[in-house]
Design brief:
alpha/beta; Rossmann fold; 6-stranded mixed beta sheet; 4-stranded antiparallel beta sheet; 10 strands; binds adenosine-5'-triphosphate; binds magnesium ion
Length: about 240
Amino acid sequence: MSTPLLTVAGVRSGYGDLIVLHDVDITVHDGEIVAILGSNGAGKSTLLKSIVGLLRTRSGHIDGAGVRLTGLPTEAIARAGIILVPEGRQLFSTMSVMENLLLGGHLNRRQHRNDSQLDQVFELFPILKERRRQVAGSMSGGQQQMLAIGRALMARPKVLLLDEPSLGLAPIVLGQVFEALATLRTLGVTTLLVEQNAMMTLAFADRAYVLERGRVVVEGKAADLANDPRIQQAYLGLGSHTA
Ligand SMILES: Nc1ncnc2c1ncn2[C@@H]1O[C@H](COP(=O)(O)OP(=O)(O)OP(=O)(O)O)[C@@H](O)[C@H]1O
Ligand SMILES: [Mg+2]
């Protein structure tokens, strides 16, 4: 397989005295959609925060898009093309859809690049084109999630990091968001996706890792994990569940 676009190697990370991630190894190759699964508090968001430099790693290293990310400030990591859609979306809710998208593109210096990227985002999420003049905060949760992903795509990510895009969405919009995520593959966007909604995620991811108490306890092809009865019972909320 090609050289990884993102490598997390032996990473320990946490908050103050609390070490959350222990010796985590993860790789994402060019064009792959890789999922991180795990229950509440497993360390999924901590992993993404460590990758984008919101949290300093205690040991190990992280490389992305050919750059050693460890120790770099968050803006430098974003400029290297490692773009996070955070938990809870963090849109500019009083600004329009269009303004939010253009802010996402501010890392691109040349206007014509923004125009072509905007066309691609509108193709992926036609609803954003329709609603481009609407105030972001007045849209539904699903539409806001599409906007958050669209805004990240405006930065032309080399690696897109998504933190629980399905969180709090009604089942009907959930399907739409997952369909859009599956379309990311056709755009060739390399994606690391954190999700609790394991079955829907394994249906379109290439590979997945399961985090448990800050450690990778299972990794493999998504299709294999989806069919593994142990995984189904322990991590995917099927059968006897004790969480
Ligand atoms: N800012 C913080 N300060 C201190 N501890 C934190 C902080 N954020 C998270 N933690 C702790 O780190 C651990 C991992 O949290 P994290 O948010 O990474 O989990 P998660 O897998 O993303 O869970 P969820 O599915 O609920 O989003 C938890 O024990 C949590 O309480
Ligand atoms: Mg989280």
